[in-house]
Amino acid sequence: MAIQQKGMHGAWASRWTFIMAATGSAVGLGNMWKFPYVAGSNGGGAFVLVYLGCILLIGVPVMMAEVLIGRQGRQSPVNSMRDVVNESGADSRWRHVGWVGVAAGMLILSFYAVIAGWALAYIFEAASGDLVGINGDTAGAIFGNLLADPGRLIFWQSVFMLLCIGVVVGGVKKGLGVAVEILMPLLFIMLLLLLGFSFFKGDFAAAWNFLFNFNVELLTWRGVLEAMGQAFFTLSIGMGAIMAYGAYMPQNANIGKTVLIVAFFDSLVAIVSGLIIFSIVFATPGIEPSAGPGLMFISLPIAFGGMPGGLLIGSAFFVLVSIAAWSSAISLLEPCVAWLIEAKNMGRVQANLLLAGFAWLLGLGSVLSFNVWSHIKLAGFTIFDFLDFLTANIMLPLSGLLIALFVGYAMKKELIDTQMVGTSARVMKLWQVTLRYIAPVAISAVFVMGIVDKFFS
Fold first, then answer.
1. What residues make up the domain containing 265?
2. Is the CB of residue 86 less than 8 Å from the CB of residue 6?
3. Residue 275 vs residues 32, 116, 239: alpha-carbon distances, Å
4. How far apart are CA 110 and CA 363, in angstroms?
5. What is the CATH number of the domain that holds 131?
6. 0.85 exceeded by the pTM?
7. Which of 111, 38, 63, 81 is CA-nearest to residue 435?
8. Largest CA distance in the chain
9. Helix, strand, coil percentages in the chain from 3-state DSSP, rounded to 5
10. What are the tens digits of pLDDT across the range 240-282?
11. Into how many domains does the chain fold?
């Protein structure tokens, strides 16, 4: 078939390689420091139930649409959108959707590498013994000293970016495919080991209650919107990564079933991470659960420094975090690399160095926003916060919304049917209804909530 002949980047060795790659793209820092706290603070089990429902009604349908476009186009997101739009006879303006996702992915990579660098640095902080017996003030000072030192931040940002280049430069089979076949099993093995440690050495019962007590009274409408947003963002939708990975997906793989497996693994990692983190936090007197960097780089180091074997476990935990960040970051670099190879006939090495270098240079703005440029504001934000807001609150929801609307209303039915062979009529109908009516409304609500939160609350 012509569709099989379009691809110039190769294909995943198997359906399971795609599943591991897509799971690696989806599993990231947000699974580990945002989801557990947001769940526990919004009714525990009630929030988790709503979140899983949103995964099925928002995340999975839009992810299926993104994979479908990628596999139909068999190219970078930019060129896949262009060709699918032309094949569908749709308005040419739909082609820009590919650019929105790829641009968002590159902007995210620029500051994501900085945060991932923190995790790399903390592997050695834990292993060195500096965390033994620390209190809140000391933990805060250690993290503050890291943020205040541009040289250290740039060093670890550079190490992380080199790790990403080392994978993506190898291409689909020898680079990305081999990496995810090693990294994802390693991630799950480490998750299980840390889960065992937290069960026997941490306060597992308190963590379980925090995450799963069914407190409906704590679940507000705002919590429901949080669940929608988490369901949308956790699957890496709208940033070009899933569309690029879909372009390398075997033609005989069922898109719906495959995406459901990815969503299951992604949710599993988020829940297990929460049990690990809060078992350790609640086992340490005087530490309160918090969200964001405060949990990961202040609360947890105090806990690791005060428990038997904590330094080894702490090092292992930050290795786990670094693997999760690494598997996500390579998926952000690949879409733009693929486009440069197609559009400019560049070699993969040259394209990687150029784009990673651009992301690294842009990331220096984020590095310096924590110290010497902290006074520089863009629309009231530091450079780091501005890039985070622009991508998470505007570009990703916009990209996801447009993907849902395009496949739901503008993509040619025959092209959809070609990619969805083997899907029952009932599942197809349910998918189309959610893609046309439910997902757009939910994503729009997340979009509006993000704007209101930043400027009107």
1. 2-455
2. no
3. 10, 22, 29
4. 4
5. 1.20.1740.10
6. yes
7. 63
8. 66
9. 80, 0, 20
10. 999 999 999 998 899 999 999 999 999 999 899 889 888 988 8
11. 1
